[in-house]
Amino acid sequence: MTATSARITAVDTYDVRFPTSRELDGSDAMNPDPDYSAAYVVLRTDAGDGPEGHGFTFTIGRGNDVQAAAINALRPHVVGRDVAELCADPGSLSRDLIGDSQLRWLGPEKGVMHMAIGAVVNAVWDLAAKREGKPLWQLLAHAEPEWLVSQVDFRYIADALTPEDALRLLREGRTGLAERESILLERGYPGYTTSPGWLGYSDDKLTRLAKQAVADGFTQIKLKVGADLDDDIRRMRTARAAVGDGIRIAIDANQRWNVDEAIEWTKALAEFDPYWIEEPTSPDDVLGHAAVRRAVAPVKVATGEHVQNRIVFKQLLQAGALDILQIDAARVGGVNENLAILLLAAKFGVPVCPHAGGVGLCELVQHLSMFDYLALSGTTENRVIEYVDHLHQHFTEPVVMRDGHYTAPLSPGFSATMREESLAEYRYPDGTFWAADHAGQEDAA
Length: 445
What we know:
Blueprint: E1 8-17, E2 36-45, E3 53-60, H1 63-73, H2 75-78, H3 83-88, H4 90-99, H5 101-104, H6 111-132, H7 136-141, H8 145-150, H9 163-173, H10 177-187, E4 189-197, H11 203-215, E5 220-224, H12 229-243, E6 248-252, H13 259-268, E7 274-278, H14 286-296, E8 300-303, H15 310-318, E9 324-325, H16 335-348, H17 361-375, E10 385-387, E11 401-402, E12 405-406, H18 420-426, H19 432-444
Parallel strand pairs: 4-5, 4-10, 5-6, 6-7, 7-8, 8-9
Antiparallel strand pairs: 1-2, 2-3, 4-12, 11-12
Helix pairs in contact: 1-6, 4-6, 9-16, 10-17, 11-12, 13-14, 15-16
C-alpha cells in the first residue's frame, strides 16, 4: 500500500481516567473531586508502518462516558478518507464534522460534540505533522499564510476578522521568524505554574510548592480561590510571603461567582496584588466579564478555557471583556478553530496565555503558543503558558520545562501520543489499575 493511496481504516477510542481526586490534585471551588481523564482517539491507516494520528479531549471522571460516545458518533465521517488529502487539508474534515446537521443540532459548535470534533481534528493534525516529519508548531509556523487562512472558518466572525485581515496579520507576522525560532529553540516559551495553588492543599504545602516554583525559574504562580473569602485572604497572604513582591500571583475562581460577588471578592484580595482574576463568573457571560473588568482594574480579567467557540471569543473581544485570552487546545473544535481564535486575539491586540494542565493539555497547547510567537504575535511579552506538574509521564513525548520555560518539542507530531502501558493501566473500567481498584472495593464491602 503506497502512502498516496493510504486511507483511514479505524477511529479507536479509549476512556482513560486517573485517580487524581485522591490527593486533591486539580481541586478547585467548582471541582472538588476531579479524576483527570481523557477521551482518547487514535486514527489508524493502512499505510503499513506509517504513523497514526493521536488526539484527545480532557474531561474529569464520568464525563468520559459521554465524550467517548460523541467521538464514536463521528467515525463515519473519518473512516475511508484518503490520508494524503486529509493531511493536506484538515479543514475539509473540520467543515464536514461541524456540518453534520443531525449532530450539529446538539450544539451548534459547542459542548460535548464540539469537543469530540476537536479531538478528531487534533488527531488529524498530529498525523499530518508526523507525516511531514515536523513538530506541529514548526509545521504551522512555516506554512504559507494563504494555506493557513484556508484552514479557518470565518463564518460568524467576519464582522470582526475577515480573511483579508487574517492574511495581512500572518504575512506581517512572518517578519523576523527565523530569528525568533532561534530564540525559541535556545530559550523556550515562558510558563507559569498552578501546582502550588490547588484549593485542597494545606498552607504548608502551598508555601513549599510556591518557593519551589520560584527556585525552578517561574515568575508567576496561580492560586485557586472562591470557596471561602477568609481562607482566600489567608492563602494569598501566605503565597505572597512565600514568593515576595517580584513574582506575579494570578487567582482563579473557576466560574464560582455572580458578577457583583466577583467584584467584591476580587477587591478584597487586591491588597496582595493579584495579576489577574480568571473565570470570575460564567464563561458565557460576556457582559458580566466586561462589568467585572471595569470594576476591578488594575487587576486583569482572564478567561477562555471554557469558552465554547470562536464566536463567543469574538464577542468577549468586541465588548472589551478580557485582558488575557486563554485558549484551550481541546475545548473548541481543534487546531483550525484555535487558529481563528489566535487571529482574533492578534487583531484586537490581546495577549494569549493558554489554559493547560489536565491530561496532556500542556503537551498540546505549547505548539499553538509557539506558532503564535513565531508567525503571528511575534512576542512573548506578558504571555505565559500554564504548567501543572502531573501526568506528563503518560506521554511518549512529555513537556520539558527548563528555568520556568517550555522547551520547544522536536519530535514530529502534536505531542499527543500516550504510552501503551498507561492506556493498559488506566483505561476505564478494565485497565489494570481500575480492575484492581474495583475488586478491592468489592472485597472491602
